[in-house]
């Protein structure tokens, strides 16, 4: 064998569902969306869906099959996700697999006392630093809810800590609608512009 010959890397793939069964799942899902509908508890979302052609009865929204299919055609098949340094952190597409640590722990196991307790700021900081150092974790998350700050700011606070102590992309969310703009402003602040790679927009890369 020549010295410059590289062995091909192979990754086994396990298909649990047949093509026909997948088609059946999709067909039945479209049927549920069209007949049963989805409960939407947000007035702005209801307005946007109605404007897009959905049938809205109170907070129940029914999705026509042609609308779902047309929407899927415009959905990007690949999304590039960047870190705070504008470096590509991961590409979401095909069979690509990436790991993040999950989100939203209400209690943790204290590493010293081995007793269950509620997280505080120092736990969020240690967690963010650890996630930043682990090479096989592609993205950090707002993993814990810090109980040493007012409840109204807990969602934005955990994002703030993550942005302070890790440059990796953030998987996060909000507890209240009014927090969204604040958290978005944080992301824009660290990237410098809404047009910079990493700010969540349809068809572009996402940092949250």
Report on the architecture of this protein.
This protein has two domains: 19-73, no CATH class; 79-191, no CATH class. Helices cover 35% and strands 12% of the residues. It starts with 18 loop residues before the first helix and ends in a 17-residue tail after the last helix. The strands form four sheets. Strands 1-3-2 form a three-stranded antiparallel sheet. It has a two-stranded antiparallel ribbon with strand order 4-5. The longest helix has 17 residues, at 19-35. The protein is of the alpha+beta class and 208 residues long. The model is unreliable at 200-208 (pLDDT under 50). It is globular.
What secondary-structure arrangement, pairings included, does this model have?
Blueprint: H1 19-35, E1 38-39, H2 43-51, E2 55-57, E3 60-62, H3 65-73, E4 79-82, E5 88-92, E6 108-109, E7 116-117, H4 121-133, E8 140-141, H5 154-165, E9 170-171, H6 179-191
Parallel strand pairs: 8-9
Antiparallel strand pairs: 1-3, 2-3, 4-5, 6-7
Helix pairs in contact: 4-5, 5-6
How far is the first residue's CA from the last residue's CA? 47 Å
Write the H/E string, N to C: HEHEEHEEEEHEHEH
Portion of residues within helices: 25-40%
Strand order of the largest sheet: 1-3-2
Nearest-integer average pLDDT: 87
Structural class: alpha+beta
Low-confidence stretches: 200-208
Tell me the Rg in angstroms: 21 Å
Q: How many domains make up the coordinates?
A: 2
Oligomer state of the chains in this structure: single chain
Our count of helices gives 6
Question: Which sheet architecture does the biggest sheet show?
Answer: 3 strands, antiparallel
Total beta-strand segments? 9
Q: Please state roughly what percent of the residues sit in beta strands, choosing from under 5%, 5-15%, 15-25%, 25-35%, 35-45% or over 45%.
A: 5-15%
Shape: globular
């Amino acid at each position: 064998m020549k010295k410059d010959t590289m062995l091909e890397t192979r990754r086994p793939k396990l298909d649990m569902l047949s093509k026909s069964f997948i088609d059946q799942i999709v067909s039945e899902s479209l049927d549920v969306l069209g007949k049963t509908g989805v409960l939407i508890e947000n007035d702005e979302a209801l307005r946007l869906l109605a404007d897009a052609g959905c049938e809205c009865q109170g907070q129940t929204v029914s999705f026509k099959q042609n609308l779902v299919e047309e929407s899927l055609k415009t959905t990007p098949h690949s999304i590039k996700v960047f870190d705070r340094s504008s470096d590509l952190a991961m590409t979401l597409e095909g069979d690509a697999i990436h790991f993040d640590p999950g989100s939203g722990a209400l209690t943790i196991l204290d590493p010293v006392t081995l007793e269950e307790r509620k997280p505080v700021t120092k736990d969020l900081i240690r967690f963010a630093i650890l996630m930043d150092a682990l090479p096989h974790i592609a993205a950090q998350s707002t993993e814990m809810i810090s109980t040493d700050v007012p409840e109204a700011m807990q969602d934005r606070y955990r994002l703030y800590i993550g942005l302070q102590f890790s440059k990796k992309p953030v998987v996060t969310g909000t507890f209240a609608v009014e927090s969204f703009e604040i958290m978005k402003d944080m992301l824009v602040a660290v990237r410098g512009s809404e047009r910079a790679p990493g700010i969540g927009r349809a068809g572009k890369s996402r940092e949250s």
